[in-house]
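Translate sequence into structure tokens.
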Amino acid sequence: MSRAAHKLSAEELAFFRAFDNEIRLEILRALEEHERCVNEIVKELGCDQTTVSHNLRFLSECGFVDVKREGKSRVYHLSSPSIGKIFDLMEEHFERTRKLLRNLRETGEY
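Result follows.
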């Protein structure tokens, strides 16, 4: 089956939904730096605890985030270093696109 004819699975759709929410992206970026408990994420993002917890649960169910217990706290971390690579690929894509648009504007083609 060609890639164009491929119907996305629930898992693939959940993967992309993880990136369509600003809070989830900010959580992933924060966890890319180092592991954190919910209260640290709440403080850093300036969101309420319910919103952060809801999005952490979503990211956990999608396999992006793992959690471990440390005493009474739950500490969250990225499930794989490949999550950071996804951000690197996005940044490369956006930089190439910006460069292409700059070149088109300079040549009058856009």
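Note: The chain has two domains: 10-79, 80-110.
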